[in-house]
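Bumping with the actual sequence this time:
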Amino acid sequence: MIAHTSLAISDYKRSKSFYIEALQPLGYKNNMEYGEAAGFNDGKNTDFWITKEATVVPSHVAFETNSKQRVEAFHKAAIAAGGKDNGKPGYRDYSPGYYAAFVYDPDGNNIEAVWYDPSKE
């Protein structure tokens, strides 16, 4: 089990604002800061962090959620917050019931929200 993870970002203010808006539909809130690092809590743990770094190598992070509507709300919020579409909400052929949306954050990190539809498994 992963306790927490972090993504490198180049512009702390811009990225913090993006993640506050983009992750809100998934139940995440910015609850910690340490210098130019921000932690986000999903109601249980502060398990996602962004950290300002001199070098950013774009990565991929997927957030699991509990409904199709939350995937769609994430996509809409992330685009409104300045993200770039990398895959509109929909079923994917990765596995049965895999419903996801993808957005690039301001640094090109590929951020995903996914719901596993139990009716399709």
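The tokens above came from a reply further down the thread. The domain at 5-51+59-120 is CATH 3.10.180.10 (2,3-Dihydroxybiphenyl 1,2-Dioxygenase; domain 1).
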